[in-house]
Write a structure and sequence with these properties.
By secondary structure, the protein is an alpha+beta fold. The chain has two domains: 2-43; 92-367, monomeric porin ompg (Porin). Helices cover 18% and strands 46% of the residues. The protein has four helices and 14 strands. A 14-stranded antiparallel barrel has the order 1-2-3-4-5-6-7-8-9-10-11-12-13-14. The protein starts with a helix and ends with a strand. The model is unreliable at 23-82, 84-96 and 163-185 (pLDDT under 50).
Length: 368
């Protein structure tokens, strides 16, 4: 009897020790404890120990393993229950944004680049040739670094590219044609910080501030930009307003209204009305543009553009009509793009006579 009492005490100590060790490592202790008790009981010559009146005939269920990083099965707090209208609004927004964002990103549209929230390096080289003009060669690069310390809400941006000035002496209205090809040799280098105050599918608010260097002459600037997106029944509305203050050029206001929709056969149509007011220029410059984008596959797409540019002073008149077709393709690697864009321009300063031109572009985009 004393030996059995000592054996019982030793078994209890061993089970308690194994329980502590197993609890520290997060393993299941029920099977280990039961097996140890049975072995010790059999070694002492006694009957197997049972924890209840009836013997356990089925194995114990395995413990559920969970990972702290896996939240797919965890309920999320989503606030008040969404109604039918809110759900429908969200589905329409998601479907349209999927198409619009993919096409804007594929064509490196300014609407997408301005709101990009990640680090990237973009290198571009353009060769442009127009009738009665010499070829123009334009290398450009754009570096954006998202700062994780500020929850990716602040970006440091460094860019260098030739100044985009039209063949006339008037500024270009901010319409669908954000890339205007001219014959200038002037180059701008910009260093800035972009801070994102709000970034949702419906609204975006960004403030840019920094310095711009033109021929070594610096100028300071600050530019808040606000964008609002509203999905309607079949069309979708986008409003963008940007105010720019520059220590040299003073104030400039850019306003753009977009109406866009997806068409059958994966076509995407957008019409834009944009205007620009510059403190140092007389009048108001605005444009009306139409664009139709056609994705051929995941690596190729076409864009057809029709842009009309106007001014209000000294008299209200049509400055230029531009027709352009852009073919863009990624090849060799998904970050390597080639683009060719023939165009025909009808400027007022040569009595709206057609002027043919073509653009060749190589672009590399590295981002994460």
């Amino acid at each position: 009897m004393p030996i059995k009492k000592h054996i019982t005490a030793i078994v209890m100590l061993i089970v308690f020790h194994l329980s502590l060790a197993t609890w520290a490592t997060g393993e299941d202790i029920s099977t280990t404890a039961t097996t140890t008790q049975e072995q010790e009981s059999q070694a002492s010559g006694g009957e197997p120990l049972n924890t209840g009146e009836q013997p356990a005939t089925a194995p114990l269920p395995e413990p559920i393993q969970s990972s702290p990083s896996d939240t797919s099965l965890q309920p999320e707090f989503i606030g008040p229950k969404m109604g039918f209208i809110d759900t429908l609004h969200g589905e329409i927004s998601e479907q349209l944004l999927t198409t619009a964002v993919w096409l804007d990103s594929f064509f490196s549209d300014e609407r997408y680049i301005r709101e990009e929230n990640r680090s990237y390096i973009r290198v571009r080289y353009d060769v442009f040739k127009e009738e009665r003009a010499s070829p123009t060669f334009k290398p450009a690069f754009d570096i954006r670094l998202a700062l994780p310390q500020l929850e990716r809400k602040a970006h440091v941006v460094v860019s260098a590219e030739p100044a985009e000035t039209p063949t006339t002496t008037t500024p270009v209205p901010p319409n669908a044609t954000t890339e205007r090809i001219g014959t200038t040799e002037e180059r701008n280098v910009t260093t800035a910080v972009h801070y994102i105050f709000q970034a949702t599918p419906e609204q975006n608010f960004i403030v840019r501030s920094g310095a711009q260097f033109t021929h070594g002459s610096p100028s300071l600037f600050i530019a808040p930009r606000y964008r609002y997106f509203l999905p309607l029944h079949t069309w979708d509305f986008r409003f963008t307003q940007e105010a720019i203050w520059n220590s040299v050029a003073r104030w400039q206001m850019n306003t753009v209204f977009d109406l866009e929709r997806q068409l059958p056969h994966d076509l995407f149509f957008r019409t834009s009305v944009g205007g620009s007011w510059v403190e140092t220029s007389r009048g108001y410059f605005y444009g009306l543009s139409f664009s139709l984008r056609e994705p051929l596959d995941s690596k190729r797409a076409l864009e057809y553009e029709w842009i009309n540019s106007f001014q209000t002073r000294p008299v209200g008149e049509l400055l230029e009509v531009l027709f352009r077709v852009r073919y863009r393709q990624s090849f060799w690697r998904e970050w390597f793009f080639f683009e060719v864009a023939p165009q025909c321009r009808f400027p007022r300063d040569i009595d709206y006579k057609g002027t043919l031109g073509i653009l060749f572009r190589i672009e590399m985009f590295f981002g994460r």
